[in-house]
Amino acid sequence: MHLVVLGLVSVDPEQHLAISSDKDINAQDSLGRTPLHWASALREEMSLLLSRSLLDANASTTIRDSRNQMPIHHCAMTGNAEVMKLLIVAAALRTGTTKTWRPRVL
């Protein structure tokens, strides 16, 4: 999944997510980063689309990388406000009364 998010493999992310398991969605690379870490750090429009797709597939918002950073920290470094809102809402929903991600229009 990491290669798909980074655009190194020409596969439709939605199709790849449909056949991926929860383990694949939250797999960590050698830096401890998940696909959501990488997607939230992108500066382009693709960041929002990929992050939303990963969250819809149940990607964790709380996994920390080797530098003790979560996806929201990577997002903050790029200044992507839309993805930041998405991550905050997803984290709030999952730590509140429900653990299920429900996409909302922000």
UniProtKB/TrEMBL annotation:
It holds the Pfam family Ank_2. This is Uncharacterized protein. It comes from Mollisia scopiformis. ANK repeats lie at residues 31-66. It comes from the Eukaryota. The lineage of its organism: Eukaryota, Fungi, Dikarya, Ascomycota, Pezizomycotina. InterPro entries: ANKS1/Caskin (IPR033635), Ankyrin_rpt (IPR002110), Ankyrin_rpt-contain_sf (IPR036770). Keywords: ANK repeat, Repeat. Transmembrane segments: none annotated.
